[in-house]
Design a protein that fits this description.
The chain folds into 3 domains: 3-73, Winged helix-like DNA-binding domain superfamily/Winged helix DNA-binding domain (Arc Repressor Mutant, subunit A), CATH 1.10.10; 87-169, 2-Layer Sandwich (Alpha-Beta Plaits), CATH 3.30.70.790; 172-257, Methane Monooxygenase Hydroxylase, Chain G, domain 1 (Up-down Bundle), CATH 1.20.58. It is 57% helix and 14% strand. It is built from 10 helices and 7 strands. The chain has helices spanning 3-15, 24-31, 38-50, 69-82, 105-117, 137-144, 158-169, 172-191, 199-214, 233-271; strands at 21-23, 54-59, 62-67, 93-99, 121-124, 127-130, 148-154. The strands form 2 sheets. The chain has a 4-stranded antiparallel sheet, with helices on both faces. Helix 1 crosses helix 4, helix 2 (24-31) packs across helix 10 (233-271) and helix 9 (199-214) crosses helix 10.
Length: 272
């Protein structure tokens, strides 16, 4: 698990509901159970500041970092997709983007990753499609510096035609296998965490669960049920995730509060 990715998970799942800020000491302590060393945390934090995701500030517990408005928007959008709190209906229309792809390979890859994250699938290098407009899609494209046009379109072939578009834009069989693998890998790890486990173990197990589930934001466009195959593996995987994320949440929250409170308490003791 990379430190930068883990920090996004930490802020999105635990710190955003607590004001989106934390002292450096708490960040280090909260990532330690995941095997992430303090130098890696500090390097990742510095990188996120340069990229406009975090803002340094002075807290009562010492130096810390606050999420920026840009980060808050991205984290809130991710949380809505992870916990499926957004509407999943479909009006039968696609959001189509026709763009001039960047000439540099690295820029194309970065733009492609951003579009995929926002739920778009590629029909060809210039044409991307989604079943709903991506959050701040115009801002993402403007930041990439590419010329583009957007259209809203319904397929003349109805649902069967729409499903053909979906099959071109996404490999649903591969995504389905990834969901099955997710459950197979996580089940024994989660079974090892019981009511007798300590809070740190529960926190670490839940963190890894959410981290693994978050990768589907870059794989699964969360298509409406009408466009999905029968017995879609993503549905049972989502139920599995919800059950264990909720089961481990109280212990994980206690551990987070302990780490946040511990930094402030240590600072008070040093000041005596």
């Amino acid at each position: 698990m990379q430190a930068r990715s883990a920090l996004f998970d930490l802020y999105g799942d635990y710190l955003r509901p607590r004001g989106g800020r934390a002292p450096v000491a708490a960040l280090v302590k909260l990532l330690a159970p995941l095997g992430i060393a303090p130098p890696a945390v500090r390097t990742a934090v510095s990188r996120m500041v340069r990229q406009g995701w975090l803002h340094p500030l002075r807290l009562s517990a010492g130096p810390g970092y606050l999420i920026t408005p840009k980060a808050a928007r991205r984290l809130d959008e991710a949380a809505a997709r992870i916990y499926r709190t957004a509407k999943t209906g479909w009006d039968g229309r696609f959001d189509l983007i026709v763009l001039e792809a960047p000439t540099a390979r690295r820029d194309r890859q970065r733009l492609g990753a951003n579009l995929t994250y926002l739920g778009y699938g590629m029909l060809d290098e210039q044409t991307w499609v989604a079943t709903r407009p991506g959050e701040d899609i115009d801002g993402v494209l403007a930041e990439a510096g590419v010329r583009y046009e957007r259209f809203t379109a319904a397929h003349a072939g109805g649902t069967s035609g729409a499903m053909a578009v979906v099959r071109r834009a996404w490999d649903l069989a591969e995504i389905g296998r990834a969901y099955e693998q997710f459950v197979a890998e996580q089940r024994p790890l989660l079974a090892a965490v019981t009511v007798r486990s300590d809070d740190e173990d529960a926190y670490a197990a839940r963190f890894r669960l959410v981290h693994a589930w978050r990768t589907f934001l870059f794989r699964d466009p969360q298509l409406p049920p009408a466009l999905l195959p029968d017995r879609w593996p993503g549905a049972s995987a989502a139920a599995f995730f919800d059950r264990h994320a909720a089961r481990l949440r109280p212990a994980a929250d206690r551990y987070v509060e302990q780490c946040l409170d511990g930094g402030a308490r240590n600072l008070r003791q040093k000041g005596r």
